[in-house]
């Protein structure tokens, strides 16, 4: 089964492609929908996506690029865990929380752009990201960064 869409939720994606384009009629991505798809290099989502489930892109080892639409408001736990090739992420302006292990072991990740809408960041969100250099965040939100990562803040 290459891909499965139930209603407006992408439940599973198992096509052997390097670039994924998620259509506009999909509103959410289910838990683990792309998990362990190491051949994926880039993901582009339609503007209709509002939620991304737990571990949705976990272990997408080759994913270098992800384009997140501004409409995304919710991310689950460990969404980008073990995305070893991912270098930069700009979170959408509607996101309120960066959950547990969101970027765990993203070995190439250098930059994360955090919008003003974020009011809570889990202490483990950026764990084991050895190349992380910049967390771009507004000065008003500096206090929500885990203490272990405040020195990476670019205001």
Could you estimate the helical fraction of the residues in percent? under 10%
Biggest sheet strand line-up = 1-2-4-6-8
Q: Which oligomeric form is depicted?
A: single chain
| Mean pLDDT over the residues | 94
Number of DSSP-assigned strands: 14
Distance between the termini: 45 Å
Note poorly predicted spans: none
Output the helix-strand order. Answer: EEEEEEEEEEEEEE
For the biggest sheet, the summary is: 5 strands, mixed
Number of helices: 0
Judging from the principal axes of the Cα atoms, what is the shape?
A: globular
**What's the alpha carbon Rg, rounded to whole Å?**
15 Å
> Which percent band covers the strand fraction?
25-35%
Structural class by sheet pairing and helices: mainly beta
Task: Describe what you observe in this structure.
This protein is an all-beta fold. It is 0% helix and 26% strand. It contains no helices and 14 strands. The strands form four sheets. The chain has a five-stranded mixed β-sheet, with no helix packed on it.
């Amino acid at each position: 089964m290459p891909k499965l869409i139930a209603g407006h939720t992408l439940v599973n994606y198992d096509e052997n492609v390097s670039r994924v384009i998620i259509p506009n009629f999909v509103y959410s991505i289910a838990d683990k929908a792309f998990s362990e798809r190491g051949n994926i290099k880039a993901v582009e989502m339609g503007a209709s996506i509002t939620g991304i489930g737990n571990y949705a892109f976990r272990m997408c080892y080759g994913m270098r690029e992800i384009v997140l639409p501004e409409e995304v408001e919710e991310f689950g736990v460990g969404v980008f865990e073990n995305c070893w090739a991912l270098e930069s992420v700009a979170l959408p302006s509607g996101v309120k929380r960066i959950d547990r292990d969101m970027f765990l072991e993203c070995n190439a990740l250098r930059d994360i752009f955090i919008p003003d809408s974020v009011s809570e960041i889990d202490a483990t969100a950026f764990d084991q990201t050895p190349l992380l250099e910049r967390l771009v965040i507004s000065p008003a939100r500096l206090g929500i960064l885990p203490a272990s990562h405040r020195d990476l803040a670019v205001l």
